[in-house]
Amino acid sequence: MAAGRSRWTATLIAVAVVLGWLVVGGIAGPYSGKLGEVSTNDNASFLPADAEATRAQDLAAGFVDRETTPALVVYERPGGLTPADQQRIRADAARFAEVPGVVGPLPPPVVSQDEQAAQVIVPIDSSEGEQIRSVVERLRDIAGPDRDGLTVDVAGPAGLLGDLIEVFGAIDGPLLLVTLTVVLVILLVVYRSPVLWIFPLLAAGMSYSLAAVFVYLLADHDIVKLNGQAQGILTVLVFGAGTDYALLLIARYREELHRHERPWGAMRTAWKGAAPAIIASGATVIVSLLCLLLSSLNSNRALGPVSAVGIAATLLVMLTFLPALLVLGGRWAFWPRRPRYDQADPRTEHGIWGRIAGFVARRARTVWVVTAVVLAALAIGVTQLGATTLGQSHLFTQRTDSVAGQEVIDRHFPAGTGSPATIFTTQGTARQVAQVAQGVPGVASVLPLGERGENAPPDPNAPPKVVDGRVQLNVTLADPPDSNGAERTIRDLREAVHRVPGADAVVGGFTAINVDTADASVRDRDVIIPVVLLVIAVILALLLRALVAPVLLIATVVLSFLATLGLCALLFRYVFDFPGVDQSFPLFAFVFLVALGIDYNIFLMSRVREESVRRGTRAGVLAGLAVTGGVITSAGIVLAATFSALAVLPLVVLVELGVAVAVGVLLDTIVVRSLLVPALAYDIGPKVWWPGRLSRSHREGDRAGAGVDRA
């Protein structure tokens, strides 16, 4: 009778939890498709307030009635522009000026010296925000397709921004669909059940919906600045991490179904066993991501809380909604491989991992030395990484209209035309600053902004416009504005004009924004990486109640991270033919790889510690490896595959991050967690738990070689 009441009580609680979450999902669901409404991709607004480019932007606001982002409509005919071409260009320019969002009057078209190309500078009101893409599309419609050998492209900062917004617009649909498909296929392969895959996928979808609500509200109230990059990472992170947590809980639940007659009893024991590791894992990722709040870049500071909210929502759902679903599903959810109540040792279901554990025990020192040497050898490839600012032609994985237009500009004009650097200086020193700037290598021309405004034809004899005692100088660079050469010129230019006494010169513009962003990325890397390592060390020490084990785990993950960067450097250069990685890549790769990589060591070592209390350290290592090997490897494959879904976005930065996380997670699960960590722990023995009580425990299972046969 008591057992019957207990069963009905457990069932009613599970039903109530499931129904409650379904109501939450019904409310939260629509928000997952609305994140694009509160997303922004204006990189300039992400700069730190004290950056020189930010101060230049503030000064520039006083020289114009409205801040603008220029689009460059570029025409090219290799044999030379014909009179008909020039007539068409003038007609197009007149129509461009009538487009809503364009700030007129437009300057006249500029014809190249070789008369093979012309460009029309079309300033677009910067307050249009995401709607700049619509204005750019309208310009492309007016310009029309290539015809009779005359090519037409819309480039410049506005053209580039329009292409970026279009890329990130794919996140709400295609990326989510690809991620769901990848997770579904892997779950079907892992479980070989037509039923069980539904539970983790439904829970992951619920996690994403819940996270979307909070992220939407945070972005809508300007607490965080959501951008397309953070939005894409949120999608794959929630589904990847959520499926990982589900695999761990379901694996433990399956074990306990062999020991408990009733599903709710099995779930209670499984939850108590798996929840601490899942919570510790989630907490590690959350705290590591929140370390991005230390970043000086608003874009990084947004990524931290957005991703942390996603993990927090995933933890809540996976520890409440998923257990309730599994209790209601009972044993039939595992059909056709339903676990029986037979008191079987869980290691009997993990034969291959038992054999791997035996191999580790027999060759522990050889295994960890060889794997460490191999990882160190891969890490040498870091020297080929080439962190830099990716130029516009290398930003996309496919050739966009803005890229094609920039190539035309590079062939026929000073590459910086249409996107000049700006210098703001005092009126009294303007002439001297202009002379100094003109002498900087890489500077094509220096002209003051005249009283007629930025859209007027340049006139070196016109009186400069003076605002609050300052003058604006427009500096055309010889190199493309997003190239390494242009960035070197900006650094040299700043150094030169800053030396002019009394000038109080400030250098800004598109290239200056890239320079300051790169400098901030380097600063963030140097500050955040040590903090993340310290935070993870503290969490591991509290979880494992030891100091030696956390140090070893962090060392192995850092080694795995360096090996991943080395391997990726070779892949990017010789397989993908990428020119390098963005300055922000090492920090993002570190945060995700170390935070997620330490997850699998937490899953393993928390189980090893649990088994060590009963069996002794060395036997506990073998038992922990045997019973967690399959589920952790499956979890790693899921996470690697979900991050690989970023490759559907034709943006090199996200493709590189997706590849890096996928390679790193696979390396970590297959090599580090399966071989290096168990071999190290087995070789060290009980001392791995120093100074905890377990380090002073010497049981039969602690003797080298003990438990090998049993494993």
TrEMBL record:
* Keywords attached to this entry: Cell membrane, Membrane, Transmembrane, Transmembrane helix
**Species this protein is from:** Micromonospora aurantiaca
Q: Which residues cross the membrane?
A: 12-31, 167-190, 197-219, 231-253, 274-295, 307-328, 367-387, 527-544, 551-575, 587-608, 620-641, 647-667
Location of this chain's protein in the cell: Cell membrane
Family to which this protein belongs: Belongs to the resistance-nodulation-cell division (RND) (TC 2.A.6) family. MmpL subfamily.
Its name, as the record gives it, is: MMPL family transporter
Highest taxon, organism lineage? Bacteria
Q: Which Pfam families match?
A: MMPL (PF03176)
Q: How does it sit in the membrane?
A: Multi-pass membrane protein
Annotated ranges, domain SSD: 233-328, 554-682
InterPro entries referenced in this protein's UniProt entry, alphabetically: MMPL_dom (IPR004869), Mycobact_MmpL (IPR050545), SSD (IPR000731)
